[in-house]
Amino acid sequence: GTDFQGRDVLSRLIHGSKVSLAVAAVSIFVAGFMGLVLGLMAGYFGKAVDALIMRIADMFFALPMILFGLLFAMTLGPSFRNVIIVIVLTIWGRFARQVRGEVLSVRERDFVALARVAGASNRRILITHILPNVANSVIVLATWQVGLVILMEASLSFLGVGIPPPTPSWGTMVADGRLWIASAWWVSVIPGLAILVTILAMNMVGDWLRDYLDPRLRQL
């Protein structure tokens, strides 16, 4: 069917999927890289570095995402770039906390101690010995965050502070049809179902990756 302006819903749904998935891909890559680097530093060096990075992460955890997005949009205006900035600042701490927890365990193992005795630099130990042991967790966490990021982008677009019109996104499409939900339900329901199916699919992929990348679970 079509929406209230005569635009084809299927075409907008397909084009909107590219926008929503592009936001998810860019946001998760940037937030994952940022969280990975800061998590490695916090877990490996500890003490003041750990305290500083984790307190900054706590500060961003305390920010309500919707309120932060509204404030950001009113200040700089809604755009693709600003949506990514809001999402990155909201989720990078998840990666940092996960990586920090893994590093705290890995840095106490014998192969790290042997690398220090052999004279390896901190940079070499982090990249060669610690990073490969935390990479699987980061990959699984990134997969799980896809659904969250799509939902965050849809929520911001629904409130009018996300992807600006006329660029279609799933959240904007849901918002466009909310006034005609009784007479033209497909305008809002179809993109809503697309969001639901994508989130469920990515969560299932994340569960599968967790089981596949964990050798203890593969032996069961």
Features:
mainly alpha
Short description:
By secondary structure, the chain is mainly alpha-helical. 80% of the residues lie in helices and 0% in strands. The protein has helices spanning 9-45, 47-61, 65-76, 80-106, 110-117, 122-158, 170-176, 186-213, 215-218.
User: What coarse outline follows from CA principal-axis ratios?
Assistant: elongated
Number of strands: 0
Largest sheet: none
Q: Helix and strand succession?
A: HHHHHHHHH
Structural class: mainly alpha
Gap between N and C termini, in Å? 48 Å
What does this protein look like?
- The chain is mainly alpha-helical and 220 residues long.
- The longest helix is centred in the first third of the chain and has 37 residues.
- It is elongated, with a radius of gyration of 21 Å.
- It starts with 8 loop residues before the first helix and ends with a helix.
Helix/strand layout:
Elements: H1 9-45, H2 47-61, H3 65-76, H4 80-106, H5 110-117, H6 122-158, H7 170-176, H8 186-213, H9 215-218
